[in-house]
Design goal:
Layout: H1 3-18, E1 31-34, E2 40-43, H2 56-61, H3 77-103, H4 107-251, H5 257-296, H6 303-330
Helix pairs in contact: 1-3, 1-4, 4-5, 4-6
């Protein structure tokens, strides 16, 4: 039962005791004072100097009332006060005319007596209320303290849980940092491997270029070898021509000059045709070889080969000049 409920019960009891409507008379309303916990404590009104009688009801009300539980108890002091006040009111209503006739007391004296009883009852009720309200406040304080301890325990548990979560977060962050370091190292290794692959690709390209250049050098060398074979054939032809000239000079003094001369002409024509064919093929191959050598393989050609090629060219020119001289020398005989 809260303090406001106690206050309403006290006002109800005082209304029955004083036979006065509280809504019509503000003179009998008790003074109120709010405590720090929000409860309302009734304060007694100032007493008058009139003589007061102590009835059996007030004497019983002066006894200290035990602490009531929060729920309404039918055997509590407030219930007993209420029932006695109601019974006393009924008895007063039934006996009021008889007492007035028998005692013939003046109206003012009766009202003073009732007022004194009302003040006594009001003081007793205020004492009971002032005893009950601190008990309720203490009980409320104990409950609040218990709730506060529970909240503190919950806060402590929550803080422990937060510390655990923070430790987990810290472990997770450390793990994330380790993974980031591993990823950075792996990325660095990938970059290094990429650079190595690029370097190897460059080296492979260089090797391919070198192989192509070697092939070109080999082709040029084969062409030079072919030129050397041509020079050998030309030398043999020159030797045959010399032999033919010697035989021609010998045959001039003999009778069979005409037959030998015809054979010589025939041989000369054949030799001339073969020489012309060889010259054409040699010239074509020499031009192609010179162009290829000059375009692609200038840096790989040995100076010795260049000198030999020049020497061979001079020899070819000399042989051509000799062939022309032979042709000019045999022309008058025709």
């Amino acid at each position: 039962m809260t303090a406001s409920a106690h206050t309403r019960w006290m006002e109800y009891i005082l209304a029955y005791c004083s036979h006065v409507d509280l809504n019509k008379s503000a003179r009998h309303k008790p003074l109120q004072q709010e405590t720090a916990m929000g409860a309302t404590i009734l304060q007694p009104q100032p007493q008058t100097n009139k003589p007061q009688r102590m009835s059996s009801t007030t004497q019983q009300a002066q006894q200290p009332a035990p602490s009531q539980p929060e729920q309404q108890d039918t055997n509590g002091p407030l219930h007993r006060i209420k029932t006695r006040a109601l019974s006393k009111r009924e008895t007063l209503k039934r006996r009021a005319p008889q007492t007035r006739k028998r005692s013939q007391r003046p109206k003012q004296q009766v009202q003073g007596h009732n007022k004194g009883l009302q003040e006594q009852v009001q003081q007793q009720v205020l004492r009971l209320v002032n005893q009950l309200v601190p008990q309720k406040i203490q009980q409320k304080v104990r409950e609040t303290q218990e709730q506060f301890l529970q909240v503190e325990q919950q806060v402590q548990q929550t803080q422990e849980r937060i510390s655990q979560v923070e430790q987990q977060v810290q472990h997770t962050q450390e793990r994330i940092l380790q993974v980031e370091k591993q990823l950075q190292q792996q990325a660095q290794q990938n970059q290094d491997q990429t650079l190595q692959v690029q370097q190897t690709q460059g080296q492979v390209l260089q090797v391919q270029r070198a192989q192509e250049q070697i092939l070109q050098v080999q082709q040029a060398y084969q062409q030079i070898l072919q030129q050397e074979v041509y020079q050998q054939v030309l030398q043999k032809a020159q030797e045959q021509i010399l032999q033919f000239q010697q035989a021609h000079q010998q045959v001039l003094q003999q009778e069979v000059y005409q037959q030998v001369l015809q054979q010589a002409h025939y041989l000369q024509q054949k030799n001339q045709e073969s020489v012309n064919q060889m010259q054409q093929t040699i010239q074509k191959e020499a031009e192609v070889a010179e162009q290829q050598i000059l375009r692609n393989m200038v840096q790989f050609v040995d100076p010795f080969l260049m000198a030999r090629n020049q020497k061979q060219g001079r020899q070819i020119e000399e042989l051509e000049a000799k062939v022309k001289q032979l042709e000019q020398g045999t022309a008058p005989t025709n």
